[in-house]
Amino acid sequence: MTETKDVSRQQAGVAQDVKQQEQAILPAVDIFENESGITVQADMPGVSRDRLEVHIDSDTLAIEGLADIPMPEAMDAIYADIRSKRYQRSFSLSRELDAERIEASLKDGVLTLHIPRREEHKPRRIEVQTG
Amino acid sequence: MFGTLNTSRAGLFDEIRRMEREMNQLFGGSPWPNSIRAVAGGTYPPINIGSTPEQVDVYLFAAGLNPETLDISIQQNLLTVAGDRKLQVEAGADYYRKERHDGGFRRVVTLPEDVDPDQVEASYRDGVLHVMIKRRESTRPRQITVK
What we know:
The complex is a heterodimer.
Chain A: H1 2-22, E1 29-34, E2 37-43, E3 47-57, E4 60-67, E5 76-80, E6 86-92, E7 103-107, E8 110-116
Chain B: H1 7-10, H2 12-27, E1 47-51, E2 55-61, E3 71-75, E4 78-85, E5 94-98, E6 103-110, E7 115-125, E8 128-135
Antiparallel strand pairs in B: 1-2, 2-8, 3-4, 4-6, 7-8
């Protein structure tokens, strides 16, 4: 009986490995906009700066990160909420955002991106002339 | 099902998530018995637990925390991690998405029975809290000779 259990467990492990390669975690984000532009904050715990990539391809902003978590050899997973090491999420940008001046920072697994608006698109107050 | 007003704006994935929520409501989650301390999926922070013959490793994926504000305690084989994540809310900004957890949290984890509550170490790096609990020597397998 023990044998059957082991075999089925091995198969489940292989299936899980394949799944891990395919599925990426969708990081939770906060997105807000003020006069200066749009700010994106994403939770990517386990990702260090050298394993994080922010791509801009024409009007698509893509965030990708690989978590690096030190684990002892031959560790059995008892319980897992997180089943992938890869984070991935992408957004489409609109034309008034200046993708070339994006600022990115990463602290304690939180990525903050600031995408400024183009100067000519910043809100202006329009004076109403009387007379 | 009822239509929602903003499906076209929220996108396909939000729609799939909404369907998943409705399915869970309809069928009440899994038919198998869960641990009595099991929590619903999506609870903050997510946890992974791994074990080796020497120790049990608990990983909490809690980004953006001040590790000094964390309250980690262990009673026998019951590990409790509580903390508070205060997000700075930008005044006067328009929020489009607010998915990140804001506020307090507490998670209780049942560990294997043979952990030693006196040998616990915790570290925080890149937003992951790693708690290491050693197992008791006396419970490791040993050979018994018959006299």
